[in-house]
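To: structure desk
From: M.T.
Subject: fold request, one chain
Message: Could you run this one when you get a chance? Sequence is below, nothing fancy, just the single chain.
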Amino acid sequence: MSEQRGIAWTIGFVAAFALLPVWYVFGRPGNTVRAKAGHNTNWATYNGSPDNLHYSSLRQINVGNVAQLKPVWSYDTHEKGGLEAQPLIADGVLYGYSPHQDVFALDAATGKLLWNFNSGAGVTKPERGLSYWTDGKEKRVFAGINYFLYALDATTGKPVVDFGKSGRIDLRENLGRDPETMSLYISSPGSIYKDLIIMGDGTPESLPAPPGDIRAYDVHTGKMRWIFHTIPHPGEIGYETWPRDAWKTSGAANNWCGMAVDTVRGIVYVPTGSAATDWYGADRAGDDLFANSLIALDAATGKRLWHFQAVHHDLWDRDLPSPPTLVTVRRDGKDVPAVAQTSKQGYLYLFNRVDGTPLFPMETKNYPASTVPGEVASPVQTLPSKPAPFSRQKLTENMLTERTPQAHEWALQHLRSWVSDGQFVPNRVGQSTVMFPGWDGGAEWGGSAYDPDTHILYINANDVGLTESLVKHEGGSGGKSVYQAQCAVCHGQMREGTPPAAPSLLGLNEKFTVEQISGIIQHGQGRMPAFTGISGADRRAVASYVLNGGEGDGAKDSSEGKVTYDTTGYHKFLDEDGYPAVKTPWGTFNAINLDTGEYVWKIPFGEYPELVAQGLGTTGSENYGGPVITAGGVVFIAATVEDKKIRAYDKRTGKLLWEYQLAYPANATPAVYEINGREYVVIASGGGRDPRIPTGGQYVAFALPQ
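Reply: Done. Structure tokens follow.
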């Protein structure tokens, strides 16, 4: 924002704070201050508590004995496809997902299967967690499966027939557009507030895409109780930051990563992602509020209380990628309720959670204009001055890989032909621009863990770059045009893929038919979502293009349509051997004191087994999933893509205390719970982030020897 906008923003917050009801500051009437998070030995909420602390007050497992941890049970789903789920544990029962989105219940002390629910959807895109609700008598598990939200009886696993239609609601409805054309999916669990479940969803990166509206539903009936438009309608705050009719045609600005709830004050904190299309915004000129924003809403009504937009007019897929963490910090000798929000670009934002006041100074900086016809990039962005970023910000020649002289020279020659000027540099046509850190962060969806005893926040992060460029697209219809608009961001303009994240599509005509590829486009598979917004004819045309490269019925384009610009795809900056082409570490684990904004420690996180064998054991690796901290002084984390390990660190120093090799990479967040006086740590392992590594679906629980 400009200096004038920054001043207006601050004045607005002060005025808004003065008008807030007393109960927003001190809690709703009749409420008492919550007991310290984690006193319940359940883990019945995603990330451990509504405020996403990732914290357990259990201390049986501690710094002195954690090295004695052993696996005590495992549950194998016998499915392939990968896992990202954190299980829930309530009253001795563990609830989890399989890779194919079956929902199951286990005896949490033994791993014995109690029930299994199969929706019949046949979806394989990983889910990250469930929601659990009880009034003390009735118990329900809420499960997102594709675009449906199911309510299941927690005791039997049967759908609750009086919820929605036969136990489920369709999130494609109530968006003001034809539900049959809406491509969306549920990637993270809804947040429970009293008798409401508040939902976000995942959407395509390009148009057509549904709006990312935030919606609250009655946990008993499934009836929608409120909606917040993230692409504002006429008369709503932020409408002027979009073109006049954008609310009818634009999409995304969605919450795909989850939320946090202050149950005392009745506030839900909602981080959002970029607006579609991610990389070209000529049809969404303006700041595009409430995309890329942290929004504080009244959890009972959906009314906006305050917001902060982290990126204006995003052109870099800089979603806010994780549920915020509700913390407490010391300012001038007093405790201040705060909200900490990580970002893909490697910055941590910290605000007073009541009124949105930044708790560290913010700096508004100027950035270059776009050279792409029709594009108007925001001239300014606002970043916190503290803490220092937890991922590197600008790739220079002295930061290139030194793994081998050949790899360094290869990287040097490539970097010299690219634009590498740091954050928020608009992409160009015909020349690659470096994004560092890449589109997967910095921080990712695993989120951060907070220690209420020390006010230290723990964040795992990626530190790998990528390049992107734009290509002119004449529009029109046909397989190639639709492919370029919807598929090229992952699979490349020439179908060559962006390995290892997205496979090449070349040569598929030897394995698949047009109808099979069309079905995958319609229903999704693995990490690829369903594209129900693409018509049947266009799906077949895309399938024909994928298989035949423009030869064959339906694959060729017409020349109709407006000129636009598409990405050539996200290309990770990997050397010729497939390793990141930047200096290590490629992944880090960070401990930050929120009272001071200073780092307590920072360590490389993760390794490549084959490089360890060559003497390179401190490289770090990409990581997905978050940490959990306990009162025993231990931080548990898995997350690393390449080494299949779960680890335990000393929270004070970052010293490695214990590690265990799993069957698959555990790109998920652990859960900690206690049954009959015994403390357990459980992790879901299944892989799915690197297609070179086999996938599965296995849950493993650890405990101390009895």
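Reply (cont.): Residues 475-562 form a domain with the Cytochrome Bc1 Complex; Chain D, domain 2 fold (CATH 1.10.760.10). Let me know if you need anything else for the meeting.
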